[in-house]
Write a structure and sequence with these properties.
With 128 residues, this protein is mainly alpha-helical. It has a domain of 88 residues. Helix content is 70%, strand content 0%.
Length: 128
Amino acid sequence: MSRIRRSNRRRLTVKLLVGFALLFLSFSTTVASAQQSPAQPDTTEGRKLPLKEQLTLGLKATTKEDKEFINKVVLKVEQGSIPRPLVDSTFLWARERANRKSASRSLRPIVYFKPGLIARAKMLHLSL
């Protein structure tokens, strides 16, 4: 009986270690790609909307504060102080998070985007 428990404990430990390793690798890959500066900051890379319109429409920014934050983010991206991939990945995460969070009440993705981008920028020691 104790062998079975010990075996299960080992399997659980291995699964947890593998899970943490995968989580760490995916996070470090995201951080590394976010730290790389784009070769041409003004290229659209196949995007159809300018960044300001993409964020305003995609995040359903309606309040004055939301639009001011988006203007600030766009300015930082244009200046090169915040990498565009960081903004894009946070944008996609916020939209997905807003869709799956609650079926009963509709939350705007900006509710997740703003604190998410601030936290990610802080982790990379970027000013926002």
